[in-house]
From TrEMBL:
<dbReference type="InterPro" id="IPR001709">
    <property type="entry name" value="Flavoprot_Pyr_Nucl_cyt_Rdtase"/>
</dbReference>
<keyword id="KW-0285">Flavoprotein</keyword>
<protein>
    <recommendedName>
        <fullName>Methionine synthase reductase</fullName>
        <ecNumber>1.16.1.8</ecNumber>
    </recommendedName>
</protein>
<dbReference type="InterPro" id="IPR001433">
    <property type="entry name" value="OxRdtase_FAD/NAD-bd"/>
</dbReference>
<dbReference type="InterPro" id="IPR029039">
    <property type="entry name" value="Flavoprotein-like_sf"/>
</dbReference>
<dbReference type="InterPro" id="IPR017927">
    <property type="entry name" value="FAD-bd_FR_type"/>
</dbReference>
<keyword id="KW-0274">FAD</keyword>
<dbReference type="Pfam" id="PF00667">
    <property type="entry name" value="FAD_binding_1"/>
</dbReference>
<dbReference type="GO" id="GO:0046655">
    <property type="term" value="P:folic acid metabolic process"/>
</dbReference>
<dbReference type="Pfam" id="PF00258">
    <property type="entry name" value="Flavodoxin_1"/>
</dbReference>
<keyword id="KW-0597">Phosphoprotein</keyword>
<dbReference type="InterPro" id="IPR039261">
    <property type="entry name" value="FNR_nucleotide-bd"/>
</dbReference>
<dbReference type="InterPro" id="IPR017938">
    <property type="entry name" value="Riboflavin_synthase-like_b-brl"/>
</dbReference>
<dbReference type="InterPro" id="IPR008254">
    <property type="entry name" value="Flavodoxin/NO_synth"/>
</dbReference>
<feature type="domain" description="FAD-binding FR-type">
    <location>
        <begin position="274"/>
        <end position="536"/>
    </location>
</feature>
<dbReference type="GO" id="GO:0010181">
    <property type="term" value="F:FMN binding"/>
</dbReference>
<keyword id="KW-0486">Methionine biosynthesis</keyword>
Amino acid sequence: MCCDLKRRFLLLYATQKGQAKAIAEEIWQQAGAHGFEADMHCISEMDKYNLETEKDPVVIVISTTGTGDPPDTACKFVKKIKDTTLPPDHFAHLQYGLLGLGDSEYTFFCNGGKIVDRRLQELGAQHFYNTGLADDCVGLELVVDPWIDGLWLALKEAFPLQKEKEGMSSVVDAVSSSLSAGLHVVHELNLSSEVQNLKLEDKGVRSSDVLSQKLVDVNLVASTTDTKPSLVRSVPPVSQSALNIPALPPEYIEVQFQDTHGENPHPSSLISEGTTFEVPVTKAVQLTREDAIKTALLLELDIEDTVFDYQPGDAFCVVCPNNVDEVEELLRILGLSEKGEHFVCVKVKQGTKKKGAAHPQHIPERSTLKFILTWCLEIRAIPKKAFLRALVECTSDVGEKRRLQELCSRQGASDYACFIRESNVCLLDLLHAFPTCKPSLNLLIEHLPKLQARSYSVSSSNLYQPGKLCFVFNIVEFPACPARPVSRKGVCTGWLAELVAPLLHPSKNTLDTKGGNSATEKISIFARPNNTFHLPADPSVPFMMVGPGTGISPFIGFLQHRQKLREEHTDWEFGETWLFFGCRHQDRDYLFKQLRCFLENGTLTHLKVCFSRDSSTAEVAAPKYVQDVVRLYAKEVARVLLKERGYFYVCGDKKHMADGVSDAVVDILSMEMEADKLEAMKILAMLREAKRYLQDVWS
């Protein structure tokens, strides 16, 4: 349908790490080709829009952060709409469509979007389009792409003057129900299955008139002699398909090289989340044996000379750099090795077509190129499809060009999931795989996200160890795979392990045989308080803790704190405490054998452990996993949670442990209450709502 006058709609985004903004920008770019004009704003810019008087349709793209909170940019908006004095028809005039982003690895999936969606409904707003919930665990694009495709039909229906025929409403219904089917497919996906086997497009919406997408010449077909696809090679049908690829994102950054004179800013100046503290690492201990599958380290930080404060259960963030060798390699491939120490000036390109183009807040006005690649950009980030699309234009070889087009196309969605997303491929891997791809520096600044500080659970008590902060982590390992032929360590854990090597192996410290030099190593940290994952306010309330592997970390702080309280307040009544701990091997990775001390002095009432890889000669096999041990104490779990109104804490891996523990608790509640499973699930939901079943989990 052609219309001389483009119809306006309000497009709001709420983002934490840039994902929601990027999707909103994609909607903004496509809008013009469909006869619409998107008035796009960050949801925090409340002076630039007014929902109370908004007459046009509203489209909202919103992510989720933390354990289910709206992003920081949405906090003011959420607070405003949660005003209990607002009447139920406050937004009765409003038509909106909402796309929520989340990760089903976490308990409160897409909760940021759900909070806003639910509240707008309570205030009388009406959907003109079904809510979409995209899952980063299996690939946001599986929901985002069909949701955007269907948006244009829904918007046309939302403008009564643009109805071409009465039957259009049935088309919109078909789009919505088709999208719902697609969403159902995604949510029912077994997360361990291969995403590439899912063909959502066959069930979802396909738009034949997305003008912002480009049809690629089918004559550029890769060789069909190979039967298996790879990062650099495709096979039919992808290799023989015409491709729908995203619109080329407009460039908006300009980089000017300057001289080598000056000083870089301190990395902590890049942090906007809170006050940073530079603190020395005073102790490092390897908790696992050398032959353990994973290497766990405990680090102790000296915070005595700071105002940094924390409670057991809190988390904090470590400001970390990219790997030095990877930065040097990236400079070499880009032909910028000699420019590494040169200062660069980063500006917004004049006349750019990018909506709301602004200088990235995480890039200093003036710093060296090496500083930007080391401290500012997440060079390990998995490239988004928009980045792949931009890289096509920087590639000279026809075959490489075609493969990059396939990987960012709708037709190549399963290849993207398999060879880029699931293989943890980063820019450096792409540049090795596609040697004629030579992106400009401005393209990297435009498409690589901010290098995020890494979060860790506190594993100590300030009451027990004043002026000290301890934390435990596994050194993350990414083994080599066909799409990424080199193994890597985690960005932060690998850096920390290298940093504290002199403390772990003092005899190898040739700089200072007494080890004095190693104690001066410092790291920058900032607080990330947890408002809920704390000890019960009433010490007489019993609680249970489940923490296998490094999931035990916050519970060491809990127990240290409880021990100190027991010593200082002998007249207080203290509730019983349970700890369920598990690891692979008792003699290799039993991280805290001193747990027995807490048991002996009465701080810990019950300690239950299991070892998943140790062989047993017993007639009845011992339970392997913590969820199995929890089931053995069903009556005690039910008593603590239901009769004594106690607390239940879970910390560790989400998919392989926390879900199993919650399933075990549901079964226990069902059995002990003689209720069906649905009723038990409702009880668990109520416990979560009451903040008595608490999780600190990661994927």
